[in-house]
Amino acid sequence: MVRGDEPPSLESAGQAATDDLSEAAIVARHGPGLRAILLQWTKDPAVAEDLYQEAFCILFERLRKSPLTDPAKCGGYLYRTARNLFVDEVRMRSRRASSDVVQHIDSVETDADKVLDNAVRLERRTIVRQVISELKVARDRKILVMFYIDDCTKEEICPAIGVGLSHFKRVLHRARQRYKALLDEKGLSIEL
Questions:
Q1: Do residue 68 and residue 28 come from a single domain?
Q2: How many DSSP H helices and E strands does the chain contain?
């Protein structure tokens, strides 16, 4: 062996193996979360996968040129890169068809409205059930639950509470009056 032709050091050979291992570790650590976020943002698996690949390519290219001073910031750099790629994608799409972006924003707002409506509905239902359970007359509780919550018909309710069809409206009316009185006592105003 000639003096100038020294074999590559174990350190430089190990560095290449370590780089591959660290890239795999970065993908294993941040990949699933990044993929989920991109899929949530884009609502399109193909676009999410493209942005996912591009974000990791940019990160690894950056790390090869100059390592980050703090390796703990690698995840933040990756997520900011993915966010910027997503913003670029949205801008590119908006140039092609601005109405698609408006529809997407509208659908997001509609989804948020649905979530809020469901939460309000659930809270109201809980309060109504609680107030009904506090009614003193068992027949009142039963008729209100069956009629307003379980959506039973008059024909199903009357035998269950022991009244004839001709008396149903009066019994329901009295139960509603007692329900409203209890609501007024509590300072609430939730209609059935």
A1: yes
A2: 7, 0
What pLDDT, on a 0 to 100 scale, did the predictor assign at position 17?
Answer: 37
Q: Both 135 and 167 in a single domain? A: yes
3-state SS, residue 5: coil
Q: Which of 127-136, 166-175, 178-187 has the highest mean pLDDT?
A: 166-175
Tokens representing 180? 């409203």
Model pLDDT for residues 48-88, shown as the tens digit of each residue:
999 999 999 999 998 888 877 777 778 888 888 999 998 88
Which among 83, 75, 76 is positioned nearest to 37, based on CA atoms? 83
107 inside domain: no
151: left (phi over 0), alpha (psi -120 to 50) or beta: left
Q: Can you give the residue range of the structural domain that contains 79?
A: 17-96
